[in-house]
TrEMBL record:
Residues 73-395 form the Beta-lactamase-related domain. Keywords: Hydrolase, Signal. One of its GO terms (molecular function) is hydrolase activity. The lineage of its organism: Bacteria, Pseudomonadati, Pseudomonadota, Alphaproteobacteria, Sphingomonadales. Residues 1-46 form the signal peptide. This is Class A beta-lactamase-related serine hydrolase. InterPro entries: AmpC-like, Beta-lactam-related, Beta-lactam/transpept-like. Pfam families: Beta-lactamase (PF00144).
């Protein structure tokens, strides 16, 4: 769960995370990394018809056979050049763990290496996939309806400041219409912990738009989803997840609880700051107040078990945590901001719509950077997590993209040869921000023309070049790697409300603020 216009709150984001309270250097690094990678209502997708069963895609076995060695090579470079203190990865294929590996150190000062089997990392907002699974368990049991006003399930009331109520489904696709605020999410010590319900009651964000109109990532909305599970089940949220997801799947080294204790605490990787070129250990991060939004600690093999269950329609061995039709529904489409780019599923972010379809979720705490990706048609998935200095953030994304480009390579799109159109020049501002505070223009994305059928994007002084591939669609050239994935940006909406979206950021959009 990071916050910014480049990755949360006031920065462009590729995925979710907590970024309140991180240093300016870390925010700047995230901005540059995202760039190097890259009201008309948003497009509402089909109602809750179960998704069709995935058509199997055969993978190139040679790419899989050499995958571990490929990852080893990427990680060797990142440990040397990307300020990565430690990292884990697990890869699953056809219902089995292909491999789980650790890299670098769990504790730099004591020279304790990361153990790919035992070391715990913080998945951040990847935790939300557990929360969405818990919520959908209640939906399939008839305890919750996706079309109910969320106030039906709460012991406090979200104010009726818009004309329509926030529905449960709006939590899943991040369209509740809240402003983004990180106040009170992170605690310094357990003495600062507040129970989930009272915290949510006392930190209701301002509703800045009608629900269901456009996706704008909401940690608060995700925490509400977990509280609904707690309310309707009668079980404390971490107890519910333990009994109905973690224990059935055998995820014995995973928990939402903070702080850790016993063996989990002993095996937890440390988070780090980079000070004067040295890794300096930081205290264990505490997100108890918004637990369902991202407080999980887990091992890579445990995350592999969760991936296998999701890929296999809710089943792992004899355990069935979701009905097959519910698992398939979650992997389907629910909402999109941009007409020609991937959107949101039922809690998942759609990474690629076909060739094959890829879904997943990212996560960023201040100290850890993670991503889980699933390819249901190929029965393949991976989880990665890094910690270290600011460079460990783009390192996570580079590793993720390297894996996608190797296993599911694609070619760049043909360049647009149609009639030239005026470049969509101007400054664009994220819709995921705190509207009750003054905007921060230094984080706006500046778009300028770069000759016919090309544009330049600038974020905090960093520039990238994009070439036109459709009437309002551009593909990134700067930093593009052979085999992809290739980042795209689309411009859309009427002249009175022009918007911009990135293919890698279905959870936010950017609005033209001046030309």
């Amino acid at each position: 769960m990071a916050r910014g216009q480049i990755r949360e709150g006031d920065m462009v984001m590729r995925d979710g995370g907590f970024w309140r309270g991180v240093s300016g250097r870390e925010r700047s690094f995230a901005c540059l990394a995202a760039l190097a990678l890259a009201t008309l209502p948003a497009t509402a997708l089909a109602d809750d018809a179960p998704a069709a069963k995935a058509v199997a895609v055969k993978l190139d076995r040679a790419r899989l056979d050499g995958l571990e060695e490929f990852v080893n090579g990427v990680m060797a470079q990142q440990l040397a050049n990307r300020e990565v203190a430690g990292a884990v990865i697990s890869v699953v294929y056809k219902g089995k763990l292909l491999f789980a590996r650790g890299y670098g150190y769990a504790d730099v000062d004591r020279a304790i290496p990361v153990d790919g089997e035992r070391t715990l990392f913080r998945p951040g907002s990847v935790s939300k996939l557990l929360t969405w699974t818990a919520l959908m368990q209640q939906v399939e049991q008839g305890q919750v309806s996706l079309d109910d006003d969320i106030n039906k399930y709460l012991d406090f009331r979200i104010p009726d400041t818009q004309s329509r109520p926030i529905l449960v489904r709006h939590l899943l696709d991040h369209t509740p219409g809240f402003e983004d605020s990180g106040v009170g999410m992170m605690s310094k010590t357990p003495a600062d912990f507040v129970a989930l319900g009272p915290w949510l009651r006392d930190h209701i964000p301002t509703r800045v738009r009608e629900p269901g109109v456009e996706t704008s990532y909401s940690n608060y909305g995700s925490a509400i989803a977990g509280y609904i599970v707690e309310r309707v089940s009668g079980e404390a949220f971490p107890d519910y997840v333990d009994r109905h997801i973690l224990q059935p799947l055998g995820m014995a080294s995973t928990t939402f609880r903070e702080p850790l204790s016993g063996v989990m605490a002993e095996n937890m990787a440390l988070g780090y700051a980079l000070t004067d070129g040295r890794f300096v250990a930081k205290p264990f991060e505490l997100y108890h107040n918004v637990m369902p939004a991202g407080s999980v600690s887990a091992t890579a093999p445990d995350m592999a078990k969760f991936m296998i269950a999701q890929l296999h329609d809710g089943r792992l061995g004899k355990a069935q945590i979701l009905k097959p039709e519910t698992a398939r529904l979650m992997r389907g489409d629910l909402m999109r901001n941009a007409p020609a780019l991937p959107g949101m599923g039922y809690g998942y972010m759609v990474v690629r719509e076909q060739g094959p379809r890829l879904i997943g979720h990212g996560g960023n705490t201040a100290d850890f950077h993670s991503f889980m990706l699933l390819a249901p048609e190929a029965d393949f998935g991976f989880f990665v997590s890094t910690t270290g200095g600011p460079g460990s953030y783009p390192a996570r994304t580079e590793l993720m993209n390297a894996l996608i480009g190797r296993v599911f390579p694609q070619a760049p799109a043909p360049r647009w040869t149609g009639a030239a159109t005026p470049a969509p020049v101007g400054a664009y501002r994220t819709n995921r921000r705190t509207y009750s505070e003054p905007p921060r223009p230094e984080f706006d994305i500046k778009v300028s023309a770069a000759g016919e059928r090309a544009i330049t994007l600038e974020i905090m002084g960093a520039r990238s070049h994009w070439e036109q591939i459709g009437p309002d669609l551009y593909e990134q050239v700067t930093g593009a790697r052979s085999g992809g994935p290739y980042e795209r940006v689309e411009f859309y909406g009427p002249d009175s409300d022009r918007k911009m979206s990135f293919g890698s950021q279905p959870h936010v959009l950017y609005r033209l603020v001046h030309q």
